[in-house]
Amino acid sequence: MNPVNYLYLAALLFTIGASGVLLRRNAIVVFMSVELMLNAANLALVAFSRLHGNLDGQIIAFFTMVVAAAEVVVGLAIIVTIFRSRHSASVDDASLMKL
Amino acid sequence: MSTTTELTLRAQEMVPAPDIEYGQLAPVLIVIGAAVVGVLFEAFLPRRARYAAQALLAGLALASAFAAVVGLAATGRATTEAGLVAMGALAVDGPALFLQGVILLVSLVAVLTFAERRLDPRAHGRHVDSFAAEGAAVPGGEGEKAAVRAGFTTTEVYPLLLFAVGGMLVFPAANDLLTLFIALEVFSLPLYVLCALARRKRLMSQEAALKYFLLGAFSSAFLLFGIALMYGYAGSVKYAEIASVVADTNRGTTEALAGTTGNDVLLLVGGALLVMGLLFKVGAVPFHMWTPDVYQGAPTPVTGFMAAATKVAAFGALLRLLYVVLPGLTWDWRPVMWGVAIVSMLVGAVIAITQTDVKRLLAYSSIAHAGFILAGVIAATPSGISSVLFYLAAYSFVTLGAFAVVTLVRDAGGEATHLSKWAGLGRRSPLVAAVFAIFLLAFAGIPMTSGFAGKFAVFKAAAEGGAGALVVVGVIASAIAAFFYIRVIVLMFFSEPKVEGPSVAVPSPLTTTAIAVGVAVTLVLGVAPQYFLDLASQAGVFVR
């Protein structure tokens, strides 16, 4: 199959993820959308790696997975703390500070 | 010969062991190593010994890393001996060493403000610092009360700070896109956690961390996708190779490269996403939305550290990206940066006028300053680089000092950050008000302060680089900004103090030293900037 198709898929996933971050209200779902964006980038990296015939892209994809895991650790810790103190994970409720 | 040895031999042929220049990597290695040791301290030292051990370890590590940077610079690594290390992953050159030195000094001063524990009233007979007794305990709940009673402190902040500094040291020196991304995450993740750890106003602090985390992760996803597209365009993540492909010297060497380099969309969108990710960290409009909330909610020592050091690291990476990777695209990125610089300066300055909270005011002021620094970046000349380096050094100490002063003005609820409470501060505590006035004047760019020397340098570079109109906007924005800085000074000195106004806490020598260093650097760089300007201009050459 033509690797370019995977790039279109990656762009589509990235856009879905970005829209999810902007439109969804639950912090966990927002965070999952961010993960979707990271995975879209991974798909693009691997597809380009295949296209160029070198391994750089696949190596970066491994690093991205590790970074995403680290981000989950920190992110879920913060979201769970917020949930425990407010009983809500909605990003709209987190509005103590305004202009 | 056995098969195992044969296999080992063959493996050695296939994968040559990388050549690592440990000496030139010493600053980064010292800081990261100390951070790991700090984590071990948390695991094995008894609670009462941790505070002193951690603070001392952090201070020593940063000081010795700074000594290592000075050593590298003294042996000519910043100028004649500049080169790439760790298989081309990192650059050791003038801008990298200069910014690493600034980051290390700034963090050393930040450790002093982190370690301060005389400001809050004693809790159960023990001195407490600005960080939560137990970050995981629910604010106001039983767990928190028990933790405070037991005298817990979050000494994990020191290893977190060191990890963040380690990432920041790598960030401006990163010489391929993978290293750039990893460094970004290594310094961002500890900062998200640090933001959530305030002792007072914990809900606000946690909210700041949530916002910073979600927006930070969002922006790093954009950066990563930009890296993917850039890699797709150039077939490599090394800065020099991308630059040569962009500059058209290396196209069509392979069939795949001939296909992807024919597609400018990859290059333009990839470059835009990369720059976007960096502008987010810098806090330039339109990627500034997180700045006021995070600056306000985070514990003030963390805000000071973050505001100063993150900006230095992120501008370093932005400079290297634009000057080393994308010089072939100068005509494409310059108009965009013009726009970003102009709106940053104006939006930062205008919205700051309406602020009623000191920390938010400083946040908007930092947005305006990001615009001023971008004016120097836009120059695209060697003097542009050196002026940005100088500005960053000057600005970071002013910021750190200003936030250190904010920690001193307190009332029953902790820090009194509402501006109305600062009225008449000059009558009550002339010294603190005068010091804060010096920092505000430096932000405003009044002569005899470092802010003036820095602004003069970047505007001069911008004008010489053909961005005259930008300089005009910059001067107008400075005038608007001067209005609200002066307004705070007038409020402090020429209005009656309120009866139940805040009191100024008497700090320990730690915060006093931090503020004194801030004032000293502000005045020295303002009165006699020439030596440091020369230093910055010697350091202003990127290795390729």
Could you characterize what this model shows?
The complex is a heterodimer of chains A (99) and B (544). Chain A has 99 residues and is mainly alpha-helical. Chain A contains three helices and no strands. Chain A has a single domain (3-86), classed as Orthogonal Bundle (Helix Hairpins). Chain A has helices at residues 3-23, 27-52, 56-86. The longest helix of chain A has 31 residues, at 56-86. The model of chain A has no long low-confidence stretch (mean pLDDT 92). Chain B has 544 residues and is mostly helical. Chain B has one domain. Helix content of chain B is 70%, strand content 2%. Chain B has 22 helices and five strands. Chain B has helices at residues 3-14, 26-44, 47-74, 94-114, 142-149, 157-170, 177-195, 202-234, 239-246, 255-261, 264-282, 290-297, 300-325, 330-353, 358-378, 382-406, 425-428, 430-444, 450-464, 468-493, 509-527, 530-538, and strands spanning 83-85, 90-92, 409-411, 414-415, 503-504.
Give the topology.
The complex is a heterodimer of chains A (99) and B (544).
Chain A: H1 3-23, H2 27-52, H3 56-86
Helix pairs in contact in A: 1-2, 2-3
Chain B: H1 3-14, H2 26-44, H3 47-74, E1 83-85, E2 90-92, H4 94-114, H5 142-149, H6 157-170, H7 177-195, H8 202-234, H9 239-246, H10 255-261, H11 264-282, H12 290-297, H13 300-325, H14 330-353, H15 358-378, H16 382-406, E3 409-411, E4 414-415, H17 425-428, H18 430-444, H19 450-464, H20 468-493, E5 503-504, H21 509-527, H22 530-538
Antiparallel strand pairs in B: 1-2, 3-4, 3-5
Helix pairs in contact in B: 2-3, 2-6, 3-4, 3-6, 4-6, 4-13, 4-16, 4-21, 6-7, 6-13, 7-8, 7-13, 8-9, 8-11, 8-12, 11-13, 12-13, 12-15, 13-15, 13-16, 14-15, 14-20, 15-16, 15-19, 15-20, 16-18, 16-19, 16-21, 16-22, 18-20, 18-21, 19-20, 19-21
